[in-house]
Amino acid sequence: MTPFEYLRAGDPGEAVAAVAGRPGAAFLGGGTNLVDHMKLGVAGPDLLVDVSRLPLDRVEETAGGLRVGAAVRNSDLAAHPLVRERYPVLARALLSGASGQLRNVATTAGNLLQRTRCPYFQDVTTPCNKRVPGSGCSAIGGYTRYHAILGASEHCVATHPSDMAVAMAALDAVVVVLGPGGERRLPIGELYRLPGDAPQRDTVLEHGDLITAVELPHLPAARRSAYRKVRDRASFSFALVSVAAVLDLDGDAVRDVRLALGGVAHKPWRAARAEEALRGGPATEDAFRRAADAELAGARPLPGNEFKVAMTRGVVVAALRDLAEEGR
Amino acid sequence: MTVRRGAVGAPAPRVEGLAKVTGSAAYAYDRPVADPVYACPVQATIARGRVVAIDGGAAAGVEGVLAVVTHREAARLADTADAELAVLQSDAVAFRGQFVGVVLAETPEAARQAAGLVRVEYDEEPHDTELRADRAGLYTPEQVNGGFAPDTDEGDVDAAMEAAAVTVDRIYTTPMLFNNPMEPHTSVAVWGDGGDEGGGGPGEARLTLYDSTQGAHVVRSTLARVFGLPPERVRVISPYVGGGFGSKGMPHAHNVLAGLAAMAVPGRPVKLALTRQQMFSLAGHRTPTIQRVRLGAGADGRLTAVAHEVVEHTSALKEFAEQTAVGARMMYAAPNRRTAHRLAALDVPVPSWMRAPGEAPGFFGLEVAMDELAQACGLDPVELRARNEPEVDPESGRPWSGRHLVRCLREGAARFGWEERAAVPGTRRAGRELVGLGVAASTYPYYRFPGSRAVVGYDGSGRYTVRIGAADIGTGAWTVLTQIAADALECPLGAVRVEIGDSELPPATVAGGSSGTASWGSAIVAACHAFRGAYGTEPPPGAEAGADMPRDPDAERFAMHSFGAQFAEVRVDADTGEIRVPRMLGVFSAGRIVNPRTARSQFIGGMTMGLSMALHERGVLDHRTGHVVNHDFAEYHIATHADVVDVDAVWLEEEDAHAGPLGARGIGEIGIVGAPAAIANAVHNATGVRVRDLPITPDLLLR
Fold this sequence. Notes:
The complex is a heterodimer of chains A (328) and B (703).
Chain A: E1 5-8, H1 12-20, E2 25-28, H2 34-40, E3 47-50, E4 59-61, E5 66-69, H3 74-79, H4 81-86, H5 88-95, H6 100-105, H7 108-112, H8 164-170, E6 174-179, E7 182-187, H9 188-191, E8 210-216, E9 225-230, E10 241-250, E11 253-262, E12 269-270, H10 272-278, H11 285-296, H12 307-327
Parallel strand pairs in A: 1-3, 2-3
Antiparallel strand pairs in A: 4-5, 5-8, 6-7, 6-8, 9-10, 10-11, 11-12
Chain B: H1 17-21, E1 37-43, E2 49-55, H2 57-60, E3 65-70, E4 92-93, E5 99-105, H3 108-115, E6 119-124, E7 152-154, H4 157-163, E8 166-174, E9 186-192, E10 206-211, H5 216-227, E11 234-237, H6 253-263, E12 270-273, H7 276-282, E13 289-297, E14 303-315, E15 336-346, H8 359-377, H9 381-387, H10 405-416, E16 429-430, E17 433-445, E18 453-458, E19 464-467, H11 477-489, E20 496-499, H12 516-535, E21 544-548, H13 554-557, E22 561-573, E23 579-589, H14 596-615, E24 621-622, E25 627-628, E26 646-651, H15 675-687
Parallel strand pairs in B: 1-12, 10-11, 14-15, 19-20, 23-26
Antiparallel strand pairs in B: 1-5, 2-4, 2-6, 3-5, 7-15, 8-13, 9-10, 9-12, 13-14, 16-17, 17-22, 18-19, 18-21, 22-23, 24-25
């Protein structure tokens, strides 16, 4: 860990100005990811601007939806009655992430902006294009159990670790960003980047951009939604694969469906092909399987994580089947 | 001679419990010391080669840094015969993560920052870290851990296999495993020249170490030799230890590093705590094993041949040969038996003891093979084991001091609802889950190591002090030794104060091999009897008497082992392959149970570690770099609370008449033995999938 300065921002504008004006500065939310990285030598900010105590800790009702402040703690968001009622997929995703202690500290924006995970990224003694661009990817040819099968590149095969973000991707959440040039709204589908040849950038945010809120749209169908996470142990482990699903049935047909996958890509993976295959069709296990296969046709597993293809198919089918049965 | 019943057998609460839960029990690193210096190691980033240059300039420039010590600056050690402990004595690198330097600073933060700034250049040589059964260079060690012969061969296994009506011939593997006690390995070292806590007169260099260890005396004797000091000028203090599981059973390199580092700042205590990541290369580990198990039997399941042949690794730096196949020598009756151990000496960290070395991995292979044999014979696995009970120890021919495996199996089957097990695998469902039951046998030897001495003193006001340099690593030794002394002195529990965890106390053997209670306890019984013999029931103030652990002639005449039966229920999600273990039950026969409360913790703790071994734990060695990639708790999975649902342990009420004055055979390790096999066998019963490679993960059960 290298020495750093600490500033507790008084308001969002001050926080943005403080970080934007200093290349080595970083925002500090709950610190559950950044502080780990500082201890490991993966991150070395020279200024931490603490935004965890800004007045961004409220969940507010909007026209049929919710506006979630960036500093709302994961455990508070999961327990919020309106979240549980309108977006069970989000509550479940939050509660399947990390541990109780971490969820008590981690913030909404911090959860969205946790870095992609890879043991080689976290180990400064090994090459990593994300940590040191151009140094090479150690995961390729190495330990890949938790790595990507969709949308990866020859430069990086890391996965995004958030559960919450997968649910938000399925819900078409909108991220409110305050930057040096003012406020803008960004669909969550446009927040994250695939690694391409610049894996050091996980999102499209620029230095100094601060997420102030996440807006969850009016989506009545989300009352029937689910999050299923497959992991190597029952708690406190990252997803091997996960799925967030919203299923809207018209009799036995699929009126609408939202599907997002976790643990398979550099970002929460909205399964648009699978959705398209399902819309208007029958809500049968066979159809769910074909839809999953349509999405997974583009999968490029690595030696060591080939199982993720079948596992993703299994969990997508299970989640949709359970939702369909619930609706009958 | 036995001791009166009274305190022994009662569920006495931990005598140090209040101190621990209130935080007042000072673990090694917590020990308040004046003017401490903090040490942070610099570790090799190559797996084999030489250090050709070290630039500590940037590190030395960090505010608060006091010294950067490398092999160039470090003092020469007096004894480097133990290569693991020859720390900073040369430029050679034998494994990735080895110490190549240490930074000393006024704060831990400065030490850590500076350690990251030390630039080391290497002349890298090709390394070799990959264990395979078909690799070149496998060799037979002179002996395996415990002093056992590496190979045994009785009868003609090959002919018996040829002639057998039913055979099993399979390869089973277990991965590289890490002890990971909750408290990391810590040492606080201070060099002085006489005075307060250590011995020796003014001007005589002496070393005091506050350490997290399973044996203060072995740390003292080892460090005295390494640093060239008479043992009385080394003092090791370790009253509270947050777990060890064998990894603190002998000194490791960090103890020597702390001592060397403290030489740079004489008079000031140097605090060194390994990080979790560092523990994966510096605190020992369990070797991966490749086990070929062959079983031959008649159609009735009676074994005619048992062969257990193991390939495993050691470090090229120092040999440690896990005794993986030794348990197969005594477990079942069969006229033809063979065991073998072959090692590959690799460029890996030094392996060492991990809970039930030998039996823990060995009984995965053996007991899954027995399940396969039961299936092949169409026999219930409990019945198969009952049919293969040996009358006497097949290995030594000696009678058993008490072998009650079949009672454990029958008792467990009745309690667990074994009759609900589906005879045909993969046929029992609960909703979307496949349900299965499994069983496996456990065993662990009765060890009692010579070398312990206890001294009893009386203060004149009704209080007895019992002094012995034993260790409580979370097991309950503080408490059970107090119980044993109270009964031997025939006085109330509250009248006895035990002192342990200090090398100034009379010598005691290490807390290992499940031997502590029997070894230290019998020394205490002897000392108490000597005390009463000398002073009667009304001793004068200051009265004192001691005794060495008495010899144990029965140990030469009987085969003495504990046994157990482990049962597991598993549920496998048919969609995702996820595995959960809603129930485990262990039934143990371990001689007398001194304290049911702490004993239960040992048994279910061992079983939980076995569950973790079955489903979660796997050190992933990247052969390109030679390091364990998943070297933290996010990636190296250990069972969480949510994985451990209903783990229960019971035991037969018994006393082993041949197991010393206590009749207790030791309980620290048997809980892990057999637990992984019981779970693997349950997974097979649930799914029909036979997993022979640990850990059993969801991907292996996907359809």
